[in-house]
Amino acid sequence: MSVQRFVGANSREAMRRVRAALGDDALILANRRVAEGVEILALAEEMVPPAEPGPTGDDTRTLDEPPDRPGGAHAGAASRTQPPPVADAPPAASRPEPPKPRPEPSTPAESAPPATPADPHPGDPHPGDPHPGDPFAAFSERLLGEMQDLRALLVGRRDAGAPVGTAEDDNRATLNRQLQAAGYGNALARELLDALPLELVHAPADEALAWLERQLVSRLAVLDDESRLLDEGGVFALLGPTGVGKTTTTAKLAARYVMRHGADGVALVTTDSYRIGAHEQLRIYARLMGAEVHALDAEAPLDDLLARLADKRLVIIDTVGMSQRDRRLVDQVAMLGQGARPVRRLLLLNAASHGETLEEVVETYQRASLAAGAPLFGAILTKVDEAPRLGAVLDIAIRHDLRLHYVSQGQQVPEDLRLVDPHELVGQSLATADDSAFVGEPLAWQATPSARRWRGLSRSLLGQGRSLAVVMAQLRARVGGFTALDAAWPLLTMPLSRQRLHLDRVRGMPAAREEDAAMMLWPRHVPIRGSQCRLPALCLNARALPLAAPWPSPGQPAGEAEKLSAAEVRLGTDRHFLPRCPSAAARRHLLDAGSDWLALAQANTRVVFEGERLPLKALAEQADAGHEVACRYRGRSGRLATGWLPVSLNDGTPVQAWFAVLHDPDTGRRRLTRYWLAADKEAASRPALLAAHLVAEEWSSLAGRAWQWLAPEAGEGVDTELRAWLATALAAVAVRLDQEGDDWAMDVRGHLLALLGGTRKRSAAALLEALWHLLAARDAFVLAAAPLMGEVTTHHE
């Protein structure tokens, strides 16, 4: 074996050299950023001379940054939804031909370790070297020896019980075992664990378990308004196999209605003429409640009876129990869909049944219901008190998108029928800790790479649809303005007239009904690179986090003071992040309005301090130390040390000069220095605002990147104002998700990064690319099957 070192100006160039020299089966040992670009150590079974190096270009992206543009955007839905490539592999047309043998590597610096005073010259043999005169083989032997020693050390530590970061202490393996023990299936387990955020892989077990519970709860559809269901009434038919508890559940459901509205508006119908005593059992319940009861032969049509019961607000039909393998099942269910009055079908699921049995029941009854004209309206869980494990029935409900209406656990009417509490139900399912003789060895979730599973090799389309639906629902609920972004995205493939009609609705003021705007972020007064269009202004919430609510430049007043005033009057904002010190007129307005402001400044910006005009850089050493705050900047954590001085502008206006230095929290290395001017107000809250404004720098650069991705390719094209609006909103959501520390944001990040393969590090740049994938995939699902994305309500009226 031999180890080779490859250096390229960027990751793509370095990987091109690896493939050319060692082929596609090369083993990558390590990679890192070096002064020359990117260094990769690769291993092959035999030496293959590298190809002639090609041009390096000036691409300086890091290994985990997305490509410059994720595919076409607007040549119809198919081209617009083409996602960015997950890896940086070169296109097939650009791959080099197999290289001809060469007697030596391209450059000595790329193939041999540097000489040091303590070691022999790279060309000289090491003492005891089994490959004298061959520096590559010698280096390989030493490297492999060190790797073997390290492996032995890790194995020894693992055997001794020390955590080493392997699969043994990987929360994905732990959660997988817990899901399997609870009765959940492999398909759902993989779907969930693919989206486990990287920060939770080796986190405390209770944090990972809390995340898992949130994922299951978010996927479990439940009845959220019983009052509306009972007040509206209708005709409900309870379906299910024999012995699942239909008759008792019919009585319980009727009793809940009687307690709310009285017995006059409810009628019970039984079609079970097979089971001895079925009619009489329901008559007893009806007599106790004072409700009407009617018996009907299983083969008799419902039309006449339902016509006579038209004055009843609620009619509940107790159907005959049939095995899912009974050939008469389809005909029996079809009779429920032939009347003029629609019948909503509720499937009863025995929580104590085996998962495969439940799967067969749901699939059969759903097919029969669809053949009768509508899907199942929902489900009711029965015999929950008899079930040793609830994972199987919840797995079935989640994967088949069945809305759970009630849980039945006992024979008492109506006490033992209650609404579904998803948190309680999921917690109860995961609380199963004992082993079972019927639960096999958990299937290793790592068996198939996540990115390949996402592309459809082993994950189901329904699972992908559920994941996308969860993310879209969270973004709509949590990020102000995302609903408007979601509505504007499909306009990219529409005629320009439709695009401009939509712009007329958002031009006047940002749409962010989900969150209140508290601050405004104003961009620099320069056009987007390669265009004449300027970025819109952006609304921030009270925590200075972005909303997906841009305010297009054409909708803003002309003057600076007028823009600030319009934002304050229409949105109620009282703080402004500015790209430069405001003009005298703008400062007067801000002072009169009592608004706060913070403006970026340059190191050579001159202010008056103690009667002398000095650049800000010269005053940094004299600044009073402020608070140090934590912040994330361009995908990395940092500590922002701040300081300030009271100064004045040339016209005598008193302001504050702020100085900030961002340090790496681990090494203490200085990453950058920034300067600000601010209104002469209370200084205590300034450090957090400085960090927020610093983070906003990435928003403008990401908006420029999204602008390039949205370039029109065919047809009428894209309105430039809409293009800028969408680019700004996408970048805002990406920055927001990277900065948010709440659990919901961590969950969404896990789902989004899973779209990129699950190995990308958390950063706003990666999240921007993932958002593009999300919206593109949503389009594909809507075109193929809207119910997968939850865009179509399946309730049958």
Alpha plus pi helix count? 26
Overall strand count? 22
Task: Report low-confidence residues grouped into runs of 5 or more.
Answer: 45-69, 71-83, 85-131, 153-168, 445-459, 786-797
How far apart are the first and last residues' alpha carbons, in Å?
70 Å
The helix/strand class is: alpha/beta
Give the mean pLDDT.
77
Percent strand equals 15-25%
**Strand count, sense and closure of the main sheet?**
9 strands, mixed
Outline: elongated
Instruction: State Rg.
Output: 33 Å
| Order of strands across the main sheet | 14-13-12-15-16-22-21-20-19
> Helicity level, as a percent range?
25-40%
Please tell me about this protein's structure.
The chain has 797 residues and is of the alpha/beta class. Helix content is 39%, strand content 17%. The protein is elongated. The chain starts with a strand and ends in a 12-residue tail after the last helix.
Note the main attributes of this structure.
9-stranded mixed beta sheet, elongated, single chain, 797 residues, alpha/beta
Q: Which secondary structure elements does this structure contain, and how are they paired or packed?
A:
Elements: E1 2-8, H1 11-22, E2 27-34, E3 37-44, H2 76-80, H3 108-111, H4 135-159, H5 171-182, H6 186-193, H7 205-219, H8 226-232, E4 234-239, H9 246-261, E5 266-270, H10 278-289, E6 292-295, H11 303-308, E7 314-318, H12 329-335, E8 343-350, H13 355-371, E9 378-382, H14 391-399, E10 404-408, E11 417-419, H15 422-430, H16 450-454, H17 461-478, H18 482-488, H19 496-507, E12 519-521, E13 537-540, E14 546-551, H20 560-571, E15 575-578, H21 584-593, E16 596-601, E17 606-609, E18 612-615, H22 616-619, E19 624-633, E20 636-648, E21 654-663, E22 670-679, H23 686-709, H24 720-739, H25 743-755, H26 764-785
Parallel strand pairs: 4-7, 4-8, 5-6, 5-7, 8-9, 9-10, 12-15, 15-16
Antiparallel strand pairs: 1-3, 2-3, 10-11, 12-13, 13-14, 16-22, 17-18, 19-20, 20-21, 21-22
Helix pairs in contact: 5-6, 7-15, 9-10, 12-13, 13-14, 17-25, 17-26, 20-21, 23-24, 24-26, 25-26
